[in-house]
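FAQ: What does a multi-protein file look like?

Like this. Sequence, then tokens, then the next protein.
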Amino acid sequence: MLNPQLNRQGRLVHLLSTEGLSRALITALLDAADQRVGADGRLNAASDASLAQWQVAVWCEAGVEGLGEGARLVDGRAGDVLPGLLRGESVSRLAHAATFLGATLVHWPSDGGVFAQPIMPLDAHSVAGSAVPLASGPSKPASAWPAPITGAAITGAAITGASITGASFTGAAITGASITSNQLVPDVLVMRHRASGAAHWAARRTPGPRHIVNAGDGTHEDPVSGLTLVAALRRALPDLTALTVTLVGNLNASAAGRSCLHILTTLGVPEVRLATPPTLAPEVSAALGVQSYVDVDAALVGADVVVVLPMASAHGNPSRRLATCEYRAQYGMSRARLSVACPGAVVLLADGLEQGVEVADDLVPLALNDWGEAVSLAVLQTLIEGEA
């Protein structure tokens, strides 16, 4: 079976997940990102690649954490989010990278249903700032928009419950119209959706965008965030084949954690551990290539790298959740708890962490700096080169 992310020549067409990508392709993406970050950790955005004739559409589903200061709900929890770790950050980074390369950035409307409405150009000045204002909804009032397209008006009603590469659709339904009803079909669709597997489903729709980049599909994957973590890690510890990596937290609810895990195992990390409450341990831990631990201190012994994942207290059955105070005591990462790891162990923070719960104030993580932008540029550059 062909990988839907690749063409018949093995070149990247869509970035939907890190699972299933070859070691060579992941290495090429990381190498391209590494070349864009100087020794001082600063981004070099200069590029021979150009998206000057391309339209890049951003689809951030209504109700999903997007961009800007308003995006403070993380997995249903209202609280303080660690600086630079907004759940919609992959969307923002990809949008900024597209403008760096000269693309026309447009907003694919999705609020309040699927509208038979052309995609809308975004204000270039807003893109140059710290966030792209997608979370605020359409520029017109809802009453001025055409009526939502319903299943009766389109071919192919909403698809729900379908299984796509092991990830089930949940949450809001997606319709074929949301991919094809717009008068203009963009060259690249940056897609963030609450349904796991949504990006894979969208990639199978024809006609549609030439390229789709998954900026987070539910709890399934967030490839850009996963690549960002590993790119920064590889600069700090280049030989990944000599490392022991411990993931701490709820892998079931961390899209970035899953993407990071697939990259680590593909690149040959010999030992990956997962420390998580027994009620939250993935049923397929062995298939994922991780050793499950209930005792976080045991999982940290001798670890070279610690990746902290969110607790995500709102994920799953309420009977399986730990109280915040219990989680902090049993699984919260601090400098004292890290003392059993290898001297100089690197700490990476996945997105969606809550200050004072998963991470104590005295813990010093590896700075990601401009790695997210570098990875986003590398992804878009690879898509351009794949068309050569």
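And here is the next protein:
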Amino acid sequence: MYCSRFYGRNNWFLFLPICICLVTFSIYAQKKKNVAKERNYVSHANKAATQVEKINGGSIFHFTSSYTCFPEASRLNGHTYDSQFYDLKSHYSDSSVLMVVPDELHVLHDSIDIVFWFHGWLNNIDTALNYYHLATQFIASHKNAILVLAESAKDAPDSYGGKLEQPNVFRSLVQDVLKNLRSNKIISKSCKPGNIVLAGHSGAYRVIAYISQNGGVAIKEIDLFDALYSETDKFMQWLKKEKQARFINMYTNTGGGTDEVSIKMMDELKEQKIPFLFSEENDINEALLMHEGIYFIHSTRLHNDIIFEPDNFLLFMKSSPLLKSISN
């Protein structure tokens, strides 16, 4: 009878410390397992050597980095969206980076400007580069800079930025880019990053917003192509911090909510008496965009059609006052 009362349900609290210890140990063991798994994937990815592809007017360098979005602990078991499962191996284990280096690149004053492009949902760095003609447009801008695409969620409907949302990881990615440029004798050992531009389409908004807050380096320009779905608080903070910068948000009525968020952000700018320029896409040109400031551009075209034909990425790059031109 004594034993029955001792182990009865009214005395469950006597086992609470043991249960807490067991749960804590289980969580610790799982985290340790995830970290080991993440390191294993990163180590395996970084074994790949740099590959070089010659294109008209430049070269594309492919390499891997430990400081891309993935692999990352919260996606080691994959991710489910709209009842569809996206596994680790196919979608969250790729640490690839590609760089577009113009033939006419000439490093000045021991610094190099860098443009980072982040792709949207159900894309990867290769499909985005090809479909949106990013390399062709970037080279045609004749900017004395390089274009970098770092892989995020590959061929998956996911805006999560993984490791690049964490403090100073983006700074390490920038250093990996410089390291690769040095190893390919494109820049000197003393060369440092110049102005850094972040650009992206659709679901890229989140990683761009987090980098603007946590990246560990100054971001001088942000160009969003129908990508303002959320995180306006982070973009507002960045705008208030970076006085000499340029922010372009081009949006459509077919982006699934980017028009509503864009209008709300413009209303917030008005309330805070922060000046910005609004224009329809048909009215924009290089002269209009060539100054630092805040630009909202409305397009009547479809969500996937605003980057090229006409070549708006080329226009944004060519008009950027933060990127040095080749002739300079």
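Q: Is there any per-entry metadata?
A: Some entries carry free-text notes. For the entry above: Residues 16-45 form the longest helix (30 residues).
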